[in-house]
Amino acid sequence: MAQTNAIELRHITKRFGQKVIANDDISLDLRKGEILALLGENGSGKTTLMNMLGGIYFPDEGQIFVDGEEVTIRSPKDSFRYGIGMIHQHFKLVDVFTAAENIVLGLEGEKGRLDKNSIRRTVREIAERYGFDIDPDQKVYDMSVSQKQTVEIVKVLYRGANTLILDEPTAVLTPQETDKLFAVMRNMKKDGKAIIIITHKLHEVLDVSDRVAVLRKGKYIGDVETATATQQSLTDMMVGRAVALNIDRPKAEKCVDRLIVNNLTVLDKEGVKKLDKVSFTAMGGEILGIAGVAGSGQKELLEAIAGLQPEEEGSEIRYISPEGKEMSLIGMDPLDIINSGILLSFVPEDRFGAGLVGSMPIVDNIKLRTYRDRKGILADRAKAQELADRIVLDLEVVTPNTNVIPIRRLSGGNVQKVLVGREISSSPTVLMTAYAVRGLDINTSYMIYNLLTEQKMKGAAVIYVGEDLDVLLELCDRILVLCGGQVSGIVDAASATKEEIGLLMTQFRREDKA
Amino acid sequence: MIRITKRDGISSLLSVAIRVIAVIAALILCLIITFLFTGRDPLRVLSEMVGGSFGTSKRMWEFLQRTMILSCIAVGLAPAFKMHFWNVGAEGQMLMGGLGALILMKFCWVIPSLPLLILMALLAILFGAVWGMIPGFFKAKWNANETLFTLMMNYIAIQIVLYFCTIWEGTVGTVKIGIVNGEAGAPSYHKGWIGEMFTGNFNDKDFMWLVLIVLLVVVAMWAYLRYTKQGYEISVVGDSVNTAKYAGIRVNKVYVRSMAISGGVCGFAGFLAVSAVSRTLTDLTADGRGFTAIIIAWLAHTNPYLMLVFAALYTFMELAGKQMASAFQLNDYYSKILTGIVLFFVLGCEFFTNYKVHISKKHKGGAAK
Predict the structure, then answer these.
(1) What pairs with residue B20 in β-bridges?
(2) CB-based contacts of B175: which residues, under 8 Å, 6+ apart?
(3) Which of chain B's residues have a Cβ under 8 Å away from the Cβ of A17?
(4) Which H or E element spans position A12?
(5) Closest Cβ–Cβ partner in B235, B247, B366 for A64
(6) Which residues of B touch A333 (CB under 8 A)?
(7) Which of A10, A353, B102, B284 has its CA at a distance of 20 to 30 angstroms from the CA of residue A451?
(8) In what order do the strands lie in the sheet with A273-284?
(9) Across the interface, do A333 and B6 touch by the CB < 8 Å criterion?
């Protein structure tokens, strides 16, 4: 008989409410010394399943075995006891503590003493053994996202985890940082650790994993040896049918200057520079991609253009209408922009926080853009209803109705379709999108790509802030790379490579400016 | 083992049923408690309870009058609550409105009846609106906490009213102005009294005008919140300030404007209380109803029609308690106990509309070992 599995899940079921079955009778094995990629579209139940190993949720039905023994995991503490360490998507670190302090936080030392030297030594040992790059005395607030992630991983190793669960660890990393993480994961594997990685980037799955398990809509579809899988075969398993994975990129033609940004500087509430002298031109008839590590100023850039961020002196944002009329957007708030007849549309990153009203049905969310269209004191409703019906029909939004059920209850993909549908319905001359496909399934993502391309061909200046470099390279005409609030380069998407962009994302190349 | 899960949604029938059951359960508990403490026949207790509001024509008008004033205040809170602006200053806004109405009633009674009443209402609305706009402005300008601010404004209003009571009555420490324009035969007789101008002399049926006016306010507020651009803006601000800004809604303006409306309607309630009911002003003109209305508005989920229902229920319990207290020689706190029981059940049943409770004998799953 072969050695026992690190973890076995048997017939795990987890429900939320009466209708949502997040996990439906899932059985899964994790062997010792392997990297298992857990693959599935958003909402397929990957994180829910892992949270039951991490002690966050408790399964409604089913059994969990660790090293062949059945266990009950009721809390994260139980989870640690069985050697399971989970690294969540959102880090849980204390900013003002050092790496070492965070690592031992919550552990019971001997007799209340905190032996910092021995902690440091152990941290260094772990770092050396697996090839981590970590300074135990660095404060968390001084760390990059990737360093914080390292602290999280070392933290669970320090506590003696034999099984590591990484929930979308690469979402926040540059390609170079991802490579480093994967090298570390391979070292841990050699050391006999079992690792589960959740991701939906297929090339990473093929790169790092030994075996792939696929979930779809809460059900376990099956597993394959990575060696025998391809991107296409994995996608087909995830979606349940064959999907074409090409983005059509018609050549940008008749490009005209639409939005000229010069020396744009934006400070946040604390006075920290979020954008530093950003200059670029967005052209009607092209898609301008914006790449950068999360938090490099993407949000501030779009919000400054939309009139939601005050600009510093010396900043310049000029808009040139299709008729050739030029005006400055500096100092305008969103209502000023609407009143001056600029058709500027914006799909913000935080859908419910900043673009939709979660408690209202579809119609009332459409009204956000149309309610002023009627003269007098009454809000327009008929026009919004008509538009809502059209969006639901055209974009295949799945919803029981448009005027009762709060939009928050719809799935992420349908919500995003409504938002994008509303924003393009006004035939915008500038269309800005931030992470427009985040959390969407493959089909919806491609539908959104096509809608954006359609707008580009209609002559809109499309600005696409994205995180998946492959998509940026395929979809956009030019890509602007932000790094720490500065423009580190603008490249031609047809000829640029991922590595090139990855480098620009992490280092500001001063020689280019000279 | 008991497990609690969140409901995905609830049919309106079930949600009404849960509330009705809660009220009935509360009434049964009231009967049991009364029986235990007084040993009275529960059926007689019940009939006294109902009799408190419907026993005589006078009591019925009393019930209607109280329900309407309470509804009017609650309706005033609706625009503020809908935008998640916790206006707990209805008490003060109502008092200021009452003060505005009384000033005209006391000193400008020479104006003909109808214009006088309209002016009184307008001044009351203005006073209430200003009292509401002040915290709205501070919230908009400096993000001052509106709950504390509106609360403190209540105490300022109470002191202002007490001040005028003192100087108008001429004796230090007076907390009550005598009935204004109540001297039979004087030229000012019944001036500024709602009812007087329609029927010529005053009786209980004059509360009819109060009922009609408040019903009008209820319908108007419902339509305002539901159909107007401003009403829509209030809902958007209430759900997400950032989304509102994104859509070009000037949030600060909405704060100030909606608080002016909220305070204005509460001030109008003060006008009604003075002109249609008490014909005088004391620091007890609001009598805590500004706070009771918060519960009413919250229970009704800012729906003005439901506010009428809950205001009626509250008033019914209040009068029932009073009636029982006098019928069974209990003291006045007894009515508060009973009102408390009903509120406890009605508020508590919110839990069951949001969550479902499963009770199972054994726990299935991986726990067994």
Answers:
(1) none
(2) B162, B165, B282, B283, B284
(3) 5-8
(4) strand A7-16
(5) B366
(6) 245, 248, 250
(7) A353
(8) A273-284, A256-267, A316-320, A326-328
(9) no
Q: Are residues A34 and A180 in the same domain?
A: yes
Angstrom distance (rounded) from CA B286 to CA B131 = 15
Cα atoms found within 13 Å of the Cα of residue B94, Cβ hemisphere only: 35
C-alpha dist (Å) from residue A157 to A8, A114, A139, A143, A185: 21, 19, 19, 19, 12
| CA dist., res. A201 & res. A513, Å (int) | 34
Of A306, A346, A377, the CB nearest to B228: A377
Q: Are residues A491 and A386 in the same domain?
A: no
Q: What's the one-letter identity of residue A112?
A: G
Residue A249: inside a domain: no
Domain with A191, as residue range(s), is 7-239
Helices (H) and strands (E) in chain B, counts: 14, 2
The first and second tokens of residue A458, run together, are 């209609």
**Do residues A501 and A358 both lie within one domain?**
no
Domain count for chain A, please give it. Answer: 3
For residues A38 and A50, the answer to whether their CB atoms sit within 8 Å is yes
Say yes or no: A144 and A17 in one domain.
yes
CA B94 to CA A164: how far, in whole Å?
Answer: 62
Q: Are strands A273-284 and A256-267 parallel, antiparallel or unpaired?
A: antiparallel
Check residue A356 and give its pLDDT.
Answer: 93
Cβ within 8 Å of residue A292, ≥6 positions away: A298, A481, A482, A483, A505
Q: Which residues of B touch A (CB under 8 A)?
A: 5-9, 227-232, 235-236, 239-240, 242-243, 245-250, 356, 364-367, 369
One domain, residues A36 and A132: yes
The residues that bridge with A478 in the sheet, in sequence order, are A288, A492
Residue pair A361/A404 in contact (Cβ under 8 Å)? The answer is: yes
In this predicted model, what pLDDT tens digit does every residue of A411-443 receive, in sequence order?
A: 778 899 999 999 999 899 999 999 988 877 777
C-alpha A348/C-alpha A300 separation (Å) is: 11
Q: How far apart are CA B193 and CA B213, in angstroms?
A: 14
Q: How far is A379 from chain B (nearest CA, A)?
A: 4
Amino acid residing at A178: T
Q: Which of A223, A225, A200, A203 is nearest to A213 (CA)?
A: A223
* B322-329 long-range Cβ contacts below 8 angstroms, 24+ apart: B322/B52, B323/B48, B323/B49, B323/B51, B323/B52, B323/B55, B324/B34, B324/B45, B324/B48, B324/B49, B324/B52, B327/B48, B328/B34, B328/B38, B328/B40, B328/B45, B328/B48
Q: Which residue has the tokens 């002040």?
A: B134
Mean pLDDT split into 10-residue runs, chain B, 369 residues: 70 84 90 83 83 87 93 97 95 96 90 90 97 96 94 95 84 72 76 68 73 96 95 95 94 96 97 90 87 91 92 90 82 80 87 80 43
Domains of chain B and any CATH numbers: 1-40+329-363 (no CATH), 58-327 (1.10.3470)
Q: Tell me: the pLDDT tens digits for A93-139?
A: 898 998 988 888 877 666 666 778 888 888 888 888 888 888 888 89
Q: Is residue A215 part of a domain?
A: yes
Decide: A100 and A136 in contact? Cβ < 8 Å. yes
Residue A511 lies in a domain: yes
Q: A280 with A378, same domain?
A: no
Q: Does A11 touch chain B (CB under 8 A)?
A: no
- Domain end, chosen from A407, A426, A445, is at A426
- Helix and strand totals (H; E) in chain A: 17, 20
Query: Are A107 and A39 within one domain?
Result: yes
Q: Ranked by mean pLDDT, which of A40-44, A111-115, A455-459, B5-9 comes out on top?
A: A455-459
The verdict on a CB contact (< 8 Å) between B365 and A60 is yes
Q: Please provide the DSSP assignment of B2-25 as one string.
A: EEEEE-S---HHHHHHHHHHHHHH
Six token digits for residue A257: 């200057």
Kindly state the tokens that stand for B67: 């329900």
